[in-house]
Amino acid sequence: MRTFTTLRHEREHDLPPTLDADVVMSESFVEHFLGEFTDPGDAVLDPFAGFGTTLAVAESMDRVPYGVEYEADRAEYVRDRVDHPDNVVHGDALELSAYDLPTVDCCLTSPPFMVCGMETNPFENYDGESDYESYLDDVRRAFSELGSVLSPGAPVLVNVVNVKYDGDVTPLAWDVADAVSEVLHFDGEIVVTWEDEGSPDREGAFGYGYDHSYCLVFRKEA
Ligand SMILES: C[S@@+](CC[C@H](N)C(=O)[O-])C[C@H]1O[C@@H](n2cnc3c(N)ncnc32)[C@H](O)[C@@H]1O
Hints:
By secondary structure, this protein is of the alpha/beta class. The chain starts with a strand and ends with a strand. Helices cover 24% and strands 25% of the residues. Strand 2, helix 2 and strand 3 (64-69) form a beta-alpha-beta unit. It is globular. The strands form three sheets. Strands 1-11-12-8-5-2-3-4 form an eight-stranded mixed sheet, with helices on both faces. A two-stranded antiparallel sheet has the order 6-7. It has a single domain, classed as Vaccinia Virus protein VP39 (Rossmann fold, 3-Layer(aba) Sandwich), CATH 3.40.50. It binds S-adenosylmethionine (SAM). Residues 23-25, 46, 48, 50-51, 53-54, 68-71, 74, 92-94, 110, 112, 123, 125 line the site of S-adenosylmethionine.
């Protein structure tokens, strides 16, 4: 498989203005990578379900979606979006093994992001305190929990970016790769460039300072 691809960041499904809809997975990202790594009928889990992009696209591709989301209103929103509302847990990815989830064939997700120097906790949706080192410990813990529900050899596809802000770079993608590699086998990265990289003042397709993202590919050992 090629280690780079170009996608279009288009959104067919409008997100609710009443919810804070700043963090979104691109539908084309989900479609592309589920097409490469899964088959119809496979169970696909997003432990950071957000607004349900992974779940809704998975369902439209005849995969069976499962999700965990920390924010009650987002979890409720995702339940309304999918044909499998009972598969959506309002909960904490750090406690994943405590939920009644079946064994899944694939995980496709984007964890909450953090940059060096930030002091709020992304794993409590930017409430409470944390620091970058603790954040990376939580990333490791969340993906370790995930191991309990993955079938042997299951791919784990993680949408993440490096962040450049005000001239400072947080190598978030590389640090997440490093942290998750401690608990799942790292197969490598696929670079995603965005066809519709727009005006220079947007600082990259998603405002993170770069016009590319990564799909990090891990596997549970077979
Ligand atoms: C990057 S967003 C995910 C975007 C999502 N994939 C989408 O399609 O829109 C991260 C999500 O993780 C959620 N989150 C933060 N901490 C969490 C935790 N401890 N457990 C589960 N979800 C969490 C946030 O509320 C946010 O919705």
